[in-house]
Amino acid sequence: MECRRRTRPIESDGPSVRRSTGGTVIGSEGSDGVKEGTTDTLSGSGTLVWWSWQPCVTMTTGLVMAVVLAVAQAWCVNAIHENLLWFSQLTEVEREISFRTECGLYYSYYKQMLQAPSFQEGLLELIHDNLTESRRTINLLQRMNIYQEVFLSALYRSLPIKTYLEPVYFYIYTVFSLQAVYVIALYLTAWLLSGSWLAGALAGVWYILNRVDTTRVEFTISLRENWSLPFLALQVAAITCYLRPQLTSLQQKVMVWLMYVTTFCFCLTWQFNQFILLVQALIIYSLDCVDVLTTSQVTTLYLVQVSGLLSVWLLQFCNSMILGSLVLSFIVAALFVRHCQADLKAGGLLVRLSKILLHSVLVFLLTFIINYLTKKALQVRSDEHIFKFIKSKFAFRPTRDFDASLYLCEEAFGLLPLDTLERLADTLLLYPYVPTLLLLSGMLGMAALKNLSRSEGGSAEEKNAAAEAEAFRPDVAYNLLHTLLYGLVAFSTMRMKYIWTGHMCALAAHGVCSAELWTLLLRALRCNSRILLRIVRYAVPLLIIALLYFKFWPKLMNELSELREFYDPDTVELMTWISTKTPKQAVFAGSMQLLAGIKLCTGRVLTNHPHYEDKELRDRTRQVYQVYARRSPEEVHELLRAAGADYVVLENSICYERRHRRGCRLRDLLDLANGHIMDGPGENDPDLGPAEHARFCEAVQTDGAAYAALFTRTFQNKTFHVYRLKKKRRKTPRSPSESAAAP
């Protein structure tokens, strides 16, 4: 079959666009690449008819499909969670143990709020908490992002659902419902970018099928990212809509408020919000430099971020970590330097590039100055471990810093495994994503160069004609840089891939259904016609969805039918013993992960916990972990007593750890920090020396005299050993008469 060019040229095959002086696209396309506001009629040439009722049918169909996919995702993760643990048949203590590591800590505050005599008393207990950290009274609402637990507890108290819905199910159903919100947000983003609800459907299908790489909510329910990422996706959808052309003044105001609300919810639910928003601020800054966004849009987006962060700062009782964040310093610096450098967007290409370089140097220099002075003035040290981790990660040399090593040795904070790309390719997601990324990057690069080289001279008609030719949709540009920068973050740190892979589905779906991209391809093949464009735009996504259905539907059904069961009798035995055999005010020391479970299951006081954003807590954790180092019993006893511990729980899985390689086991990190050589065969740094004492967690189990004098074993099973700390007997000084009588 030969595709021939029409003898009568078509005036406009793609979307009709106009551009403002700031470079913003004013016009936009409809769902089929036709300029909005026009109506095609059926003629003898076979042009497609668009009756007045068809947009309503299209909108209704798209929204219904969004709801169907959202419900499907929520149902899938709930079914997998139930099948993985047989959650409905577990006892209460087993259900609580299933909230592993920091998830148990966060859920414990929801449980604590429900057990309080009233909501007000529960809130006061959180504000003046002395159970989470022994010998310290802390404001949990200031320290941690647990407003979602407070809100859910208030909602559960007020709704008439207590008779038929247990608190734990209300909690997990809420989190799974947020997955539905996530799918809807991605669906809307893809729909807004491409103008076709088929793109949204394809994005939703890809998100569900790539569940291993897009979410881990089914086994880390309470993790902060599972609360926050749906709001981040909603914020991206709101930004995409805000940057679309031809919005009325009222629509723009609505979008600004939506951006603020979603940014606020995102920041309120995750302590790492400042680092995510910093990347977003860099995206806005980059688009501002190349004239893709107007000054008004840039200022609005910056102020939305600042407003969201400051609102959270107020709710978190003036948390200094927020004021000391890099993103706030960067936004202040960017706005100030741009105000002072008024002629930034004047001149030719070389002049503009040199000005952008100077502008960027000034912005980043001022950012670090403001951030340094702010942290010094407010004495902010809460997030310094994160910067230690980043510095050590990209220094390409080993570090002995204990806090940085804890992160570096965890797989979640390592580089993105290559098998992730294999799984993404297996679902056909990677194949359209990469060409879309390359093509849009090239188009944005060309548009940026033309924007920067645009001469100040010339008539108004020439400027408008040039601007129309060089226009690049700002909503597409934002989403392109969003996926590029967060993709780089994901490749550097695997845990951050959940920000990237979800948005990856939306951008790939846009590439499959985009009228602009298909128009370019058909032009290159000399097959450019409106009918063929519509056929390809609708046929290709439907074909991909059909292929995915036949390939993955049986696998999905098998996965949903696979039944497993929670089984951890040793931990259940430990929690039962603590609840029944120890005083309610007893203080327990141990690993951060285990203590979070002890807090949830027993309500006992802790010495340390997994929420690591506090300098004093990090120091205390390092001291408590000396039970796994080579230290004398007297030193360990003194350190534990200083933390207020009455009991210490030792875990064989840590003392005899084999999960990590040599140099990354917890005992190795402690040995390196203490200047001791590591266990096992292998090289050691020349400045390390042998320890004077045996490893405490091993030696204390021998019940030697020195250990038995300070520690009493009170519980043990195959996994755990619990020791009660004895009080040191003080030697009473002799009286003068006794001293004289002594020979």
TrEMBL record:
Q: How does it sit in the membrane?
A: Multi-pass membrane protein
Broad class of the protein's primary localization: membrane
One of the record's GO cellular component terms: nuclear inner membrane
Record field: compositional bias (Basic and acidic residues): 1-11
Which species expresses this protein natively?
A: Oryzias javanicus (Javanese ricefish)
Compartments, record wording: Membrane
Which GO MF term does the entry hold, naming one? mannosyltransferase activity
What is the top-level taxon of the source organism?
Answer: Eukaryota
The answer on whether this UniProt entry bears the keyword Transferase reads yes
UniProt key word Magnesium? no
What keywords are annotated for this sequence in UniProt? Glycosyltransferase, Membrane, Transferase, Transmembrane, Transmembrane helix
Q: Which residues cross the membrane?
A: 180-207, 257-285, 313-337, 349-373, 430-449, 504-525, 531-550
Protein's UniProt name: C-mannosyltransferase DPY19L3
Q: Which InterPro entries match?
A: Dpy-19/Dpy-19-like (IPR018732)
Region Disordered: start-end pairs = 1-39
Q: According to its UniProt record, which protein family does this protein belong to?
A: Belongs to the dpy-19 family.
- Pfam families assigned: Dpy19 (PF10034)
